[in-house]
Structures are given as C-alpha cells and as structure tokens.
C-alpha cells in the first residue's frame, strides 16, 4: 500500500494529512482557505489520489503559514508513500487547458528538490489567496517531496483559470510519475541505482 499519514504541528499551524497514491481521486479537504481547498481537490481528482487534509492555522495573520505547511505535509506524504521509489515511472508531465488558459507541469521524482514557475498573473490575489503563495506552495511541495518541478502557464487572462489549470496539471503529472511500471519491478529508475539525496 503506497499510503502515508503526516501530522505536522508548529506554533502557527496544525496539519493532519493522509494520502493514497493508488486512490481514485477522493478528496476531503479543510484548510481554512477556500481557494486552497479547491486547488487541492483538483490535484486529488486529476491525480487519482485519495487525499484528506485537516489544517488550522493563523489565517487571521495571513494565509502564508497554512499554505506552506500544507504543501510541506503533502510533499512529505508523497515522499513517504513512495518509499524507495522502486518500480515507478519517475517522470511525468501534463498540458491542461482551462478555457483561455493553458498550463504545463513537468515533474521528476528524482530525489533532488527544485521548482521553477513561469506565470504572469493579472492581479495580486485569486480567490483571496495571494498569487505569490501559489509559487510558494509548489516550491514547498517540491522540497518535501524531493522532486524537480517545472511549471508554466504560457496562455491565460483569468487568474482563476490559470491557477486551476496549473493545479490540474500538477495532479496529472504526479499521477504519471508515481505509476508503477511492470518493466521496472524491483528496480530504481536511475543509473545511480538510487533516488535518494545527492546527485543522480
């Protein structure tokens, strides 16, 4: 079973999260930030992940700490559920349109965290969430998941559509990357023989 449960507590937030990489897209998410709940629901549905999130945080200050800690918990859950990462496809990508917007995500579960995002937003926030926190979410997720993530939105005018396409693409890229390839059974998809820390 490729599942994980993460409990993360700080003086700013409390996050409890469960993840099943081999789920069917069920999502039960409450973070106190409606737009984040909406985006995580897209990741679960389009990634065929079963995801439960319960988060409380100092949203009276702003959304930053909750967004960051939920992203770290989700990344840590992916890392834990993948174990030694044997038999996985490892690399996945997806193009997703959303009306006038078009988003692309490429993901490598390499063990080497990195995140690059290219998107031009029309405003400072979407759904009440500062757009800077979308990049911060992706970077925090990539760090904890030990993944190389590239994302870009080359087309789009509506910030909601751009964000939604981006998170749908993340889900689909993650679904592709975590899949088990029967041709790689028992092996790690790396010439180094490991997807742990350090160069591969």
Q: Give the name of the CATH superfamily.
A: Imidazole glycerol phosphate dehydratase, domain 1
CATH class identity: Alpha Beta
Ranges where pLDDT stays below 50 over 5 or more residues in a row are none
What's the number of domains?
1
Instruction: Classify the beta-strand content into a percent band.
Output: 25-35%
Please describe the biggest sheet, giving its number of strands, its sense, and whether it closes into a barrel: 4 strands, mixed
CATH fold node name: Ribosomal Protein S5, domain 2
- What sequence of helices (H) and strands (E) makes up the elements? EEEHEHEEEEEHEH
The number of distinct helices, counting runs of at least 4 residues, comes to 4
Q: What is the number of E strands?
A: 10
